[in-house]
Design a protein that fits this description.
alpha/beta, 200 residues, 7 strands, Rossmann fold
Length: 200
Amino acid sequence: MVNDNYPDKTKVFAILGNPGTQYKANRHNIGFMAGESLVREYSFPAFRRQAKFHAEISEGEIDGQKIILVKPLTYMNETGKAVAAILRHYHLPIEAVTVFQDELDLPLGKIRVKRGGGAGGHNGLRSIDALAGNNYRRVRLGIGHPGDKNRVADYVLTDFTPDERVIVQKLLDVTVAAMPELLRGDDAAFAQKAHNLLAA
């Protein structure tokens, strides 16, 4: 069932993470990793810095739909600056946005998709909610939980282990493979295809 109430062909993919090489392999940066996988798979041009958007941008097409891929240059807690600037410039509604985020409340390697809802303690989502609204789609990429809320801040800023990177790579491959379903607005079909591919 199509549940995407934004019919225009231009979509914004906001990938979440922290800029800087020291954060590149962090659990918190799995959103960046997803965006980079999309660039490779669909032959998008290299990201280019756009200071007015507080982000690096890459534009391309997937299944005939224009995608503006946004990689914020702010730190996670100011992600909303980039998203709000893009929406203002292109005169797009928040419904055009899909966010790719790390998700503590999902086991490593699992994926879920939803529209709207609260930030769930995620600083990137909280910033987007405050500056642009919350009725956007979230692709939640599971990174697991350290088991103690007091360890979360350090946990998300640690790198995936070599064994975990194998799981993460499969998750990213599955996310890319199920992208046509997501772009049709069929979240259920996206989730089902992703589940099937992960189980294969």
